[in-house]
Amino acid sequence: MSRILILHASVGTGHKTAARALARAFELRGAAQVWCEDALDYGPSIYRQFYVNSYIELSEKAPVLWSYFYERSDRDDTKLTKDLRTLMDRFGVAELDELVDRCRPDAIVCTHFLPVNMLGREKRKGRLPQPLYCIVTDYNGHVFWVNSYADRYFVASPKAAFMLAQRGVHPSIISVTGIPIDPAIAEPKDREITQHKHHIARSPVVTLMGGGIDVDTMRQMTVGLIEEMGEGSLMVVAGRNEELEAALRDLHGTPKVDLRVLGFVDYLDDLVAASDLVVTKAGGLIVSEVMARHTPMVVVEPIPGQEEWNADHIVCAGAGLQVRLPEMVPLLVHNLLADPARLQALREGAQREGQPRAAFTVAEQILHEIS
What we know:
Elements: E1 3-8, H1 14-28, E2 33-38, H2 45-61, H3 63-72, H4 79-91, H5 96-103, E3 107-110, H6 113-124, E4 132-135, E5 152-155, H7 158-166, E6 174-176, H8 191-197, E7 205-209, H9 215-228, E8 232-237, H10 242-248, E9 257-262, H11 268-274, E10 277-280, H12 284-292, E11 297-300, H13 306-316, E12 320-323, H14 329-337, H15 340-353, H16 358-370
Parallel strand pairs: 1-2, 1-3, 3-4, 4-5, 5-6, 7-8, 7-10, 8-9, 10-11, 11-12
């Protein structure tokens, strides 16, 4: 019976979501004990604040600067990359070693590069006998994920595998599995039955996800979709963004378009399964979840760097379309809904690309390797 320590970092929600999905998969596959921990909890609070806030400030409020940083740091031989690695080594998660000693896991699984690099240092010094596994949670292979002491990488796509190999990772330790998502998504759901379950009476169904999109942009897209859809149901998910939910509450549908504004819901997967089309940002986890349900996507406003890679992957896979200007979303949605053949082609692309069993695949391979 195996003991598994899963480490993520609370920079956005995707890394934590992947970690929880893996924890569930390990439990379902018989692991004796599974821990799921935020690596940033095991270091100085000032480091955590700096790390999280700098990412948010750059990626959301200064995307051009973030793009420059992302591209400049995606080379292992630059001074910027070396300085950042040194910073992580010196001021990072100092108490992580104590966590490992306390848990005594048989394997350590990381869904963020920060704990990979921190624990890779310990392996280099001969102080970490456990195998160290790295789960890349986007559709690229940025150099920050690369560590000479990682025992295996699990990546989303052949392109990501190629990128890691170009950065010196031996192909024999790269497994293309898809990004781990909630194992429950591997269970099929009928679209019409799911619509009936949630009292969604009108078709087609479009779900607009508000995560990472500012209030004004969301309101603009919602108003435009109500006007352009013609008929159907528009489900707008504000999540935990109470400001966004409040800003949309005064909007109403039409005699032919039902509008439903939702806050945080625990049935997001049902909405994806019930939808003919999903409009969303291009986070690695959410796009993987949508493709696993074979639902076409319109990706809007990708953050420079990893979201651009994710969005490009979706388009190249034929699973969705990308729009950089939110103003164009309503017209694109209208055109897609009016073209069933094109929508079906995107659905088939999502079906080809989706990996609903990715969490199980990763868990099964790791358990096999350490058994």
